[in-house]
Amino acid sequence: MHYWWRWLPSFGWMGVIFYLSARSGSELQGMFPFFDSFNFGHVIAYFILAVLFYWALLPFQRKGKWDIRIIAILLCFVYGLTDEWHQSFVPGRMPDVLDIVNDIIGATLGMLAVTLIQKLRLKRLS
Question: How confident is the model at residue 55, as a pLDDT?
Fold first, then answer.
């Protein structure tokens, strides 16, 4: 079967992240005045991206193979690296290792949430 369409939400969300990465700090502050710092924004953005990657990868989950949750986190890490590289070309922005750390924290929390939801569903069914 063809599951390419399952990637569309991931690509759309990566587009949102790319768009936001191209904004200056003052533009982002104007768009999201309720965030004291954008570190939390990275956590939220990559939480969502990891869940979307997980959903896209779900048909490829195989017993005894790499868990797709790990693959989703790795994909978020790679995209986070490209995001920071992209920011190096935006006036007034610069790459930051802390942003990548927050990306991984968000992706990991996303996969923990997926795991928790799965365990709660199994418990309810038994």
Answer: 96
